[in-house]
Design a protein that fits this description.
about 375 residues; alpha/beta; 6-stranded mixed β-sheet
Amino acid sequence: MDLKNIRQEIDQIDEQIAELFKRRMDCSVAVAESKKETKTPILNEEREEQVLDRVEALSGDYGKYTRLLYGTMMALSRELQYAIINGDSELKYTIENAESVLDRENGDYRIACLGAAGSNSHIAAAKFFPNAQISLEKNFDKVFEAVEADRCDFGVLPVENSSAGSVSRVYDLILKYRYFIVGETDLPIEHCLCAIPQTDISNIELVISHEQGLSQCSLFISENGFEKKKCGSTSAAAQTVAAEKRINWAAICTKQAADEYGLKVLDKNIQNNDNNCTRFIVISKKAIITKRANKISLCFTLNNRPGSLYTVLSRFASHGFDLTKIESRPIPDSRFDYLFYLDFIGNVRESENNRRMLCALSEELPEFSFLGNY
């Protein structure tokens, strides 16, 4: 049989499969209506395992492929059932009642961020909210605490650097507090080596900075044989060097922090990567989804079943969501159990199907949090 004839046969088979799939989904609707009347749970793992075992056995050499196919079909079936049975889920209510306006330019907001004046977080906060009142906090925990206590409306936090990777502590706090992410901004990071005015670069023995600053300038530090010391922020490093007045100490910080604390720039652009950039997010206790929102953040745990992560990710793919980040974090006080943090491209208000899928997952997974669409 030549390729043309094979493809014709495939087309005919696909037509039959599509028709059978429609019939199967019609049965899912009938199942949902029955479960709604009897208040039967949607997910029946024992039943699903029986179906998967049976179709795998029926498929001979293609059993594993069939099992994968049917796992996806049953996930889509559950999604349809959730839409019928749980049409007014908590997540649906959150999405539909989220505020739609974030007035960055004119809003009378109070903003919390890390560090002292001139820190990268301070610069990012002022960039996103140019007219806001900014509260400078000692560490990431204090930023969340300021929002928790309603001292501030929003927090601005770094989550990822193009060369040093994720800011782990911030992700841990995101997963602890489960506040909404309502915005983000990228900031080019240019690190400078700064010291008191009478210092020359040949005098320097110790450099001080936030751990991200030290990581992002690791090559420069290694090449010069400097000792290094961590502190709470790059601007705090500038404050320390200015206060101690030691000729052999230098801070890795911004040019703005050096100006703020009267330091001299000994060298600039000392980061490992010339295109060094950090992504900052804006957190809030209330959901805000603007019309231009195009990124969705979620976190969840998984059922203890083979292929469970693949099954979840395949559902996002079937709805056209483009995965941009996946991060796993250990759950405190557990043994090898993890929370998964995901970023996707998409808008939950553009499509009823998108909302339906997220609502289904929120009901189905052991733990699920919608962290925002921004």
